[in-house]
Amino acid sequence: MIRLKNSYLLVEVAVAGVAFGSDLxxxxxxxxxxxxxxxxxxxKGFFEKLHKTSWLxxxxxxxxxxxxxxxxxxxxxxxxxxxxxxxxxxLKTTGILSITL
Length: 101
Description:
Elements: E1 2-5, E2 8-11, H1 13-20, E3 25-31, E4 36-41, H2 45-50, E5 54-57, E6 59-60, E7 67-70, H3 72-77, E8 85-86, E9 89-91, E10 97-100
Antiparallel strand pairs: 1-2, 1-8, 2-7, 3-4, 3-5, 4-10, 6-7, 9-10
């Protein structure tokens, strides 16, 4: 499950482990026309070559291994609703998260 809470993207351990592995940073890109945020672990260099990305810090959320990413700036810059909610997502076979905002 992926959830938006207090401008943080919260990612459950089951999803985070597959998508980010042991990465401490993520690359992100937002496509407003599709209302889609793409997120990949920093180690997925091909992702940065395909998209114009920004780096964000991937933080441990709890001892279970859940992760969090602060996306407040992205929400403000793109005038995205920052209401706390579950977010629909797809975990691609390449390990890239596609999240609908």
